[in-house]
Amino acid sequence: MAEAHQAVGFQFTVRPDGVDVKLSQEVIKNIYLSGVTAWKKRAIQFKNGVLAGVYPASPSSWLIVVIAMMSTLYIRIDPSLGMIDAIKENLPQRLDVIICYWHFLLLYTVLSAILFATGLWLFLIFLLRYTLKALLSYHGWIFESHGRMSTSTKVWLTLVKMFSGRRPLLYSFQASLPRLPVPSVDDTIHRYLESVRPLLDNEKFNQMEILANDFRDSKAARLQRYLVLKSWWATNYVSDWWEEYIYLRSRGPIMVNSNFYVMDLLYITPTHRQAARAGNVVHAMLQYRRKLERGEHAPLRALGTVPMCSTQMERIFNTTRIPGIETDIVQHLTDRKHLVVYHKGRFFQVWLYTGGRHLLPSELEMQFQRILNDTSEPQPGELKLAALTAGNRVPWARARIQYFTQGVNKASLDAIESAAFFLTLDDEPQGYDSAKSNSLDSYAKSLLHGKCYDRWFDKSFTLISYPNGKMGVNAEHSWADAPIVGHMWEYVLATDCFHLGYTEEGHCKGDVNKGLPFPNRLQWQLPEECQEVIEASYLSAKQIADDVDFHGYLFNEFGKGLIKKCRTSPDAFIQLALQLAQFRDQRVFCLTYESSMTRMFRDGRTETVRSCTSEAVAFVRAMEDPGNAQRLALFRKAADKHQNMYRLAMTGSGIDRHLFCLYIVSKYLGVDSPFLKQVLSEPWKLSTSQTPQQQLNLVDINKFPKYVGAGGGFGPVADDGYGVSYIIIGENLITFHISSKFSSPDTDSYRFGQHIQSAMLDIQELFKPINDKKTVELANHVQLENGKKHI
C-alpha cells in the first residue's frame, strides 16, 4: 500500500531501562520549514493588510506628519489650535510620577503632539478616501464618444490619478468605491416599458402599461423606501439577494443550468503529456493563489485609472457550494493545502506543499502520473459519486445528511469540500482541431457537463486535464462571474507557457523528488440506498446533458479591427447581428439578455442589458428589405442606443436588478404585485454574454497571435431559446459558443450559427462603400507622398 511508504515523524520503543525515542530529522526539518513559511505568510499578509488599510496614504506618511508636527513645536507655532494642550491635560496623571525624572512636561508635550499628528493623519486618510469616492461617483466619462474626451473628463481623470496613490494592491480601492445607487422608480418603469414595446402588440402593451402605472402609483413608493434603506446600510443593495435567490435557493441541477466553462488556448498545446501539463497549470494556480492571499495582484482599472471591485476574487480557491434542503450555502475556507483528483472513478488527495513550499511542477507531474498509472478499481458506488452534484439539489442535500455525516464518508467528503480546487484527469482527448468540424462542439460539451459524474460541480471550479495535453475549467456560478475566472485563467496560461515551460521531451522542468508520499486514495462506504440516489441523480443529469445542442465556430472573415474602422462599438455590432440572426431563425423578436458588469461599485456583480430595442427592431426589418436605403443610418441609430443602454447598466441605472430587488422586498412584506410577477416571469429566449480577454495583458497577442484563448460558454437559459457567448480575439477573430436544446423543435445551434455568420457579413456590406472610399483616398494620399519624395 502507498501509505506504507510514507515518512514517519517519530518512533519510540519501550525498553526495560526506559523509552527510546527516535526522531526523523527530515520530518522535523519539514515541520520547521512549514512553520517558518506560515509565519512569513502571516507577516506578509499583515503588512499588505496595513498598506491596503491606510491607502491611498502609506505608513511612512504617518512619520512625515509626526515630524512636521514636532518641528512646529520648536518654532512655537501651534497648528493644532490648542488641541495638543487639551490632549496633554487629559493624559493619565499617574504618568507624572513615572516620568517626572525625565522632565515629564516635555515628554507630555511630545506625546500629545504624536497623538494629535496620528489623529490628523487618520483624518487625512478618510478625507482622501471620501474625495476619491466622490470622484469615482462621476460617470459622465463613460457616456462620451470613443476617442473624444472632454476637458472636464480630462480634469477628472487627472484628479482621480492624483488621489489614487502609487502602487495599489488588489484591495486598496475597496473602501473608496462608491455604493451602487438605487434608480428612481419612474426611470426604471419608463425604461422597462420602452424595452418591451417592440415585443408586444398594442393591446398587450397597453395592459402592461396599466399594470406598471398601477404599481408605480400604489405600491412602489413603500417598497422603494425599504430598498433605499438597505442601500444605505449594506455595501450593495443587490449582490447578496442576487446570490441567494438567483443561485443558492434554486433547487434544480446546477450542471448546464448554472455552471459555465472556459477553454484552453485555441491553437497551441504546450505539451502533449497530460501529467506534465496538469503539473505546470496547478503550480501556476498556486502562484496565483499566493499572490491573491497576499493581495499582491494589481487591481483592474478601466482606462487604466478607474478601479474595479475585487471582492469576488476572494472566493476563487478553497470554496464549495454546500447543498441544503431549502437553500445552499457557499463555504469558503482559508489556507487549504491539498487538492482532490478524480481519475477513472477513483478520488485521490494530493498534498500541495512539502517542506513549507509549494510542490514544484515536476513534483506535481510525478504525483499526477502516479494516479494515471494506478490500476485499482473504483469502490462500490464511487464511480458516479460526483453525479450527486449534477442532479437536483434536494436529493443531494438529504443524501449528504444521511450518508456523509460520519465515518470514512464524512472524512472523504470533507477532503473534497475543503480542497483548494478539484482536478479531473480525463481519459478522452478534446480540443479544437481545424480538421474536425465538430471538435469545438465536443470540447465544449465535455467542459460543460462531461459524463455527468466526472466533475465536482459544487467546487468553485473544476480543472479538467485531457490526455492530449489540453485543459479547461468548469466553474460554479454563485460565488462569482466569468471575468473573475477569466482573470485567473489568463494568468495561469501565460505563466504556464512563458515562465514555467517544458523540457524538449515535454516534461515539466526541474528535478523529481521521488521521496514524496503517494497520493492518498479516498475511502467510501456507500450502502445500496445511497447508490440508488447516486444513480437517480446521474440519470437526471444525463437527460439534461444529452439534450444540450452545442455549436462553436470561429468567425475569421473580419474582427474588431474592421469594426472599429466603421466607427462603431464591436459589442453593439455583434449584438445587432445577433438580433438579425434571431429574427431570421425564428421570424419573431424576443426578450434578449446581455450581461453587463457593475464592478465600478463596491461588491458589484452584473446588470442586464435588454438588447432588443425598438431601434434594433427597425434596423432588422430594414435589413430584410433590400430596397431600404436607410439601413446604415438605422444601424448607427440602433448601435448608439445599445451603447447607451450598456452604459446605463454599468453605471447603476439598469432595469432588471432594481425590479428584482423590489420584488424581493414585496415578498418580505407580503405585498402582491401583478406587475412585478409579470416582469420576473418573462423568459429570456436569447441570452448572450461577451467573454472578456486581455484583462492582464501578460501576452502580446500581436507578437504571439497563436497564444489566444477560445473563450467559454454556458447552457441554454430557455427551453426553446439560445445561449450565445462570444469572445473578440485580437483584431481579426471572433469565437461564438452557441447552445440550445435538442428537445426544442424550434431551435438548432448549427443553424443559428449560420445565421450569425450571414448577419455579420451582411452588416459589414453596409460599410463596404465607405471603407472602399477610405481605401482609395489612402492610396491616393500614399501615391501623392511618394511622388513628392521622388521629386
Automatic annotation (TrEMBL):
Boundaries of every Choline/carnitine acyltransferase domain copy: 180-757
Molecular function in Gene Ontology: carnitine O-palmitoyltransferase activity
An example Gene Ontology CC term for this record: mitochondrial outer membrane
Gene3D superfamilies, per the entry: 6.10.250.1760, Chloramphenicol acetyltransferase-like domain, Choline/Carnitine o-acyltransferase, domain 2
Function: Catalyzes the transfer of the acyl group of long-chain fatty acid-CoA conjugates onto carnitine, an essential step for the mitochondrial uptake of long-chain fatty acids and their subsequent beta-oxidation in the mitochondrion.
Pfam families, alphabetized: Carn_acyltransf, CPT_N
Record carries keyword Methyltransferase: no
Subcellular localization(s) per the UniProt record: Mitochondrion outer membrane
Natural source organism: Sphaeramia orbicularis (orbiculate cardinalfish)
Catalytic residues, chain numbering: 477 (proton acceptor)
Enzyme Commission (EC) number: 2.3.1.21
Record keywords, A-Z: Acyltransferase, Fatty acid metabolism, Lipid metabolism, Membrane, Mitochondrion, Mitochondrion outer membrane, Transferase, Transmembrane, Transmembrane helix, Transport
Annotated metabolic or biological route of this protein: Lipid metabolism; fatty acid beta-oxidation
Main location per the UniProt record: mitochondrion
InterPro entries: Carn_acyl_trans (IPR000542), CAT-like_dom_sf (IPR023213), Cho/carn_acyl_trans (IPR039551), Cho/carn_acyl_trans_2 (IPR042231), CPT_N (IPR032476)
Transmembrane segments: 60-77, 98-128
Carnitine O-palmitoyltransferase N-terminal domain ranges (all copies): 1-47
Family of this protein: Belongs to the carnitine/choline acetyltransferase family.
GO biological process, one term: long-chain fatty acid transport
Reaction(s) catalysed by this chain's protein: (R)-carnitine + hexadecanoyl-CoA = O-hexadecanoyl-(R)-carnitine + CoA
Membrane-topology descriptor: Multi-pass membrane protein
Name the record gives this protein: Carnitine O-palmitoyltransferase 1, muscle isoform
